[in-house]
Amino acid sequence: MTRLLPTSTAGSLPKPSWLAAPEQLWSPWKLQGEELVAGRQDALRVTLAEQDRAGIDIVSDGEQTRQHFVTTFIEHLDGVDFAQRETVKIRNRYDASVPTVVGPVSRETPVFVEDARFLRAQTEKPIKWALPGPMTMVDTLYDAHYKSREKLAWEFAAILNREARELEAAGVDIVQFDEPAFNVFFDEVNDWGIAALERAIEGLKCETAVHICYGYGIKANTDWKKTLGSQWREYEHTFPRLMASGIDMVSLECHNSHVPLELIELLRGKKVMIGAIDVASSAIETPEEVASTLRKALQFVEAEKLYPCTNCGMAPLPRDLARRKLAALSAGAAIVRGELSLALAAE
Ligand SMILES: [Zn+2]
Fold first, then answer.
1. How far does the centroid of ligand 1 lie from the alpha carbon of residue 345, in Å?
2. What is the CA(343)–ligand 1 centre distance, in A?
3. CA-to-CA distance for 139 and 133, rounded, in angstroms?
């Protein structure tokens, strides 16, 4: 990537209202069968056009073909019974009725590879593809088979690795694993979470990323954030071990959070996607606010390793709001890009 400060999104973007009910997670599809397949492809074309229009440099599918960033992947696996539900606490935060692991988990056919091929055919730009991370997958299930979070995570890591290799072959430039659970289970992260993530990226030649955030802008998450105090130092537990890992890029929540930005110093040398757009607020950032976040981050990340991004996915936001936030992200990045090239010219 030759352009400085290439912009991207953390992953999900709002779906058109003709495809799924707007402004909610796990939103049910409004189409069925062949119409649903065609509708999802149309939504993918639309989300790509919107990212282009907003000036986003590294584009994604906006997760238009998934109901949810974790559940949809798991639905395609054997060994998980979606009819057998148990209530568990997700990320130690909220109760949810979840499917049960009833036997060995396996992936009979690729999950997103056709979608990635379709997206690849629509654009010349670099593509980032998000997959759930092994620990976050484990945390959304009741396990009646392995009875070990670690064992189940290793099984998922092997499955994710096969999917990621096929995504790479389909032309994906960056495979990203979403691990919000890394901000909660620090002992497990260091015991086996990052090791499982490294298993998931084994042998990949494309770039690899991990997205660690404080969650979508839903009430359970915003309530939890209120309990975290004035300094959010969760990243401090994970970054040293991530720094030693083979992961190329780390995607973080920054703008409007209480994360002390100096924690990013712990990742010096890695590429860092800086969340400069708050997905939990309906206020649209000004380009200057975005630029201000990026300038602060530049104290701790080399300019050529800084990737302006959103804090998290935007699936639950109104479409127009998401569009305008993406435009602000691009405009803010352009301001700082201009400053950097002036500084370079002055040297
Ligand atoms: Zn996120």
1. 37
2. 33
3. 10
How far does residue 302's CA lie from ligand 1's centre (Å)? 23
The CATH number given to whatever domain includes residue 163 is 3.20.20.210
Which two tokens mark 29? 């599809």
- Between CA 241 and CA 244 the distance in angstroms is 5
Tell whether pTM > 0.90: yes
Give the domain extent around 130.
Answer: 33-341
Backbone angles phi, psi at 91, to 5 degrees: 45, 40
Question: Could you give the number of structural domains in the chain?
Answer: 1
Rounded to the nearest whole angstrom, what is the distance from the C-alpha of residue 222 to the centroid of ligand 1? 13
311: CA distance to ligand 1 center in Å?
Answer: 7
Distance 252 CA to ligand 1 centre (A): 8
Place of tokens 């096969």: 162
Tokens 């238009």 correspond to what residue? 64
**What string of pLDDT tens digits covers the 347 residues of the chain?**
578 999 999 999 999 999 999 898 888 999 999 999 999 999 999 999 999 999 999 999 999 999 988 999 999 999 999 999 999 988 888 888 999 999 999 999 999 999 999 999 999 999 999 999 999 999 999 999 999 999 999 999 999 999 999 999 999 999 999 999 999 999 999 999 999 999 999 999 999 999 999 988 888 888 899 999 999 999 999 999 999 999 999 999 999 999 999 999 999 999 999 999 999 999 999 999 999 999 999 999 999 999 999 999 999 999 999 999 999 999 999 999 999 998 888 87
CA 22 / ligand 1 centre spacing (Å): 19
